Amino acid sequence: MRIESIVAGAVNRFFEENNLPLPDQSMIQIQKTRREFSGDITLVVFPLIRIMKKSPAEAGEELGRYLKQLPQISEFNVIKGFLNLLIESSYWTRFVSEIYSKDNYGISEKSGPADTVLVEFSSPNTNKPLHLGHIRNNLLGYSISLILEANGFDVKKVNLVNDRGIHICKTMLAWEKWGDDKSPADAGMKGDHFVGKMYVLFENAYRKEVDELVAGGMSVEQARIDAPLMVEAREMLRKWEGGDPGVYRLWEKMNGWVYEGFDVTYRKLGVSFDRIYYESDTYHTGKEIVEEGLAKGILKKKEDGSVWADLTDRGLDEKLLLRSDGTSVYMTQDLGTAVMRQKDFNAGKMYYVVGNEQDYHFRVLSLILDELGYEWAGSLHHISYGMVELPSGKMKSREGKVVDADNLIDEMIETSGRLSAELGKLDGVSGEEKEDIIRKIGMGALKYFILKVDPKKNMVFNPEESIDFNGNTGPFIQYTHARICSLMNKAGEHGITPERGESGIITLTGKEVRVVSLLHDFPDVITEAGKNSSPALIANLLYDLAREYNQFYHDHPVIRENDDRVRNFRLQLSLATGNVIRMGMGLLGIEMPEKM
Fold this sequence. Notes:
This protein is of the alpha/beta class. It has helices spanning 3-17, 49-52, 56-67, 89-99, 132-150, 166-178, 184-187, 191-215, 220-226, 228-241, 245-269, 279-295, 330-345, 359-371, 405-423, 431-451, 463-466, 474-493, 510-532, 535-555, 564-587, and strands at residues 29-32, 41-44, 73-79, 82-87, 116-120, 154-161, 275-278, 300-301, 307-310, 318-322, 349-355, 380-385, 388-389, 459-460. It folds into three domains: 3-87, Arginyl tRNA synthetase N-terminal domain (Gyrase A, domain 2); 121-389, Rossmann fold (3-Layer(aba) Sandwich), CATH 3.40.50.620; 406-587, Orthogonal Bundle (Isoleucyl-tRNA Synthetase, Domain 1). Strands 7-6-5-11-12 form a five-stranded parallel β-sheet, with helices on both faces. It has a four-stranded antiparallel β-sheet with strand order 1-2-4-3. Strands 8-9-10 form a three-stranded antiparallel β-sheet.
């Protein structure tokens, strides 16, 4: 049993034995002791003083004397309303002996059919390649999926491809006008890059047309509507929705180019999906849902033929669902997608990993589904995340000023190889093994730097900082894991392996305890990361663990330790640390090299 549960149970017994009302579970608050105080865990006394009818200091002393009777508690001290408890070394050594060889430590085992949850992430448009913003989305979505699985859920990773709409028609029209009937292969480009080039060509030409109309006296708003290119693009969209064979064939061909390019990028990122949905399918279902809601009087049609949801009674405004020309909007297809997914998977929850600029959209989506009578409407959860920028500032897709995902990945791997060579990290390693390690370091740097930041916060991605072999970076944690692998290999060469069972009665140093206590926290951090949809919680625990282990390793001999019991414990501790780092980084989607 974990020490927090042992202490909480003892607190309840204290109140029973003293004929006091039992405290609510929320009143027994146990946390890690702050570094400046002596202790391992701290019981917050303040919530309990009302029942005990004593001052915080008196209540703390009385509880401390009672808890010191536990075999797991060696000492205590009271600082104002905080009872700091020092844990016996025997508890820590027994704990390490129990978990050091477990490959699934901290992972919830399914005891029966697991609740199904959906996690939607990626959601690219087929008019441009993936960029740095998409990288954050994909890495967050994939890691959150793995973390939810580690919490015992049956997770379905889904992707909704935005493969229809006016932005797609812009690329199609641009190819007809300026593509010279070339394919990506003809141009020597990845398919998504080639189509993205068409999008930029359209936007540049469209902007010139708007400027010319404005110079002629037209308002900016009207010029954007009446520009000849935009008129043509809208007409192409109407033809597409009307099933025009020529437009449809062009759409299939260009989207096919993009999908081939996306697949390459997804493989580089190491992400995958259980199901891919396409807006070109889901918008049909969405329109049917809207028509049904209109027939039931839940939705309303205006004089121009457009269809709206009135959410004013919910404290919001009206939301457009079908334009006057009958074409759908994003909300329409999101309604269809949600209904299709629920029919496919009967999920308990549906998570949407989408930027924070869409907070309002997903609030409205849930409310409209509720208005339409879907009982599961409240199961939609928006995992909102902040913008990601470079030190140079924001990216602009329409101007082609973005950090291309493929280019960034290649740059990270190239930088990994160069720095590894400069530091002599891979001397003696060659061939495919060396290339594989370099790739793992580069991708580990990229993934960790992005995932260590609270998803809700905006962030600046600095490639140079991310690949530093010191500090709070992926390569630093990977290096710690490789160091432990090397240590265990050397121990094996000397015929030394950690023996099962407790290492005997030994007294742990403060640095050993700090490493063990972080290992002890790992399951709780996985749980919290799942509840908060935050891989950053795991990332930062792993950095703390790697840092504390390196300090321990610097000051404490392991293989060269003369006391067999101490050496056995330190080998167990090292192996447990390596396993937790590997498992934790795995939950971030990061591969761990055994040599660095």
